[in-house]
Specification:
With 304 residues, this protein is α+β, with helices and mostly antiparallel strands. The chain contains 8 helices and 13 strands. Strands 1, 4, 5, 6, 7, 8 and 9 form a 7-stranded mixed β-sheet that branches. Strands 2-3 form a two-stranded antiparallel ribbon.
Length: 304
Amino acid sequence: MINDTNILFSAFNKVKDLETLYGDSIPWSAIHAGFNYSGESILLANQVQGIFKPKLMSRGPISIKTTMPKGEREHIYNDQRTDDGYYQYSLEAGDPHGERNVLLWQALEDQSPFIYFHAVAPAVYKALWPCFVRAIHPDRGYAEIIIGKSLLDEPFEVKYEIPDEFESKYCVRETKTRLHQASFREAVLNAYKNKCAISSLPVPQLLEAAHIIPDAKVGKVQTVSNGLALSRIHHRAYDAELIGIDPDYKIHVSDRLYIEDGGPLLDKGILDFNGKLLCVPHAKKLQPNRDYLAERFDLYKRYN
């Protein structure tokens, strides 16, 4: 028997699979492919509609989403400015109780969960789930969206309950951090054309975005210039002060890595880059901030 609860759990399982494949950066093409349920093809989201319900569901949304148009914030990546206890999701224009907004009112009434696809880059999303509507403010034009614990291990006949204030605040803080990190990674890797700044390794799955100095020192406006696209091994070495990068973009390798029989990975993967220059983006605003590099290089010198 087809019912909304079964469809939602199938959607959650599909999102879980997408997270296994793509982590916090799910491409729109994978989301738009949807999933199969009882011989029917069901979409997870709609390209045009922010609040979406497939035809087979009777009430409430299967998902909501926010987008990031191409060309926006190419060097500023941190746009998270929501309250610790919820995400502020704008109602669609027009009647706050009508059109697709009614799906949010139904989710509030039924306490039913859904997926929130939050853009971390143009056509790239982090999935937040299960989400609930805590309150709707038609006069102010937005709904309060909170996040609960995963329901995948619960039986299908579970009675959904909106998480308590403590749980929702914790979940939102945690996902805000994940969103921030995902947005940062996408922006930095895009600036470096998906190549490691040290080795030029062109495999995005093996690349990470390294912070030069902690975000807290940068301030409220976070920029790509505080990031470096590095392979996982170079990122770990940079964080451990085994690799340093001076303000002139010169790479320094710690004497601690010059050991006998280090093997080809150490020799070719790290030691060979000692004294070479970092590969940086052509656009000046995307290049590593020299003052940040100087501050971080001072730390490297203290350890070495």
